[in-house]
Amino acid sequence: MKILRDSYYREAKRLGFRSRAALKLLEISNRYHIIKEGDVVLDLGAAPGGWLQVARSIVGEKGKVIGIDISQIRPLDYENVFFIKGDIRDSNIIKKIIELSNGPVDVILSDIAPKFTGIHELDHARQIAISKYIISL
Asked: Which residues contact 105 (CB under 8 A, 6 or more apart)?
């Protein structure tokens, strides 16, 4: 698999982020201030962990970041960053989130996408369904 070596990729690696998507979240956060120090952040579709890194850098030691993904990621070395391998639609995963968050979640980030079939109408319907589910959380 070829990894694109574009300027965003190089900049993300230079800053120590796991993905170039981390730079996108940094830009959104700087512009709209969606994450604040001390927040509890839930990152859905967290692999490979770039958004977890950015969220942790913003929430600091007083906040908490919880990542969920069906794919395993390398652990991050912070006491307040947690990762759960699993599907957000699983009630046991929801229970774990509730236990870890110890109260309400301030921000939900989602980069979840269902497995695509190549059939536009079906893929679109699945994306809408997962988005509605996430909003219902």
From this structure: 40, 41, 42, 66, 97
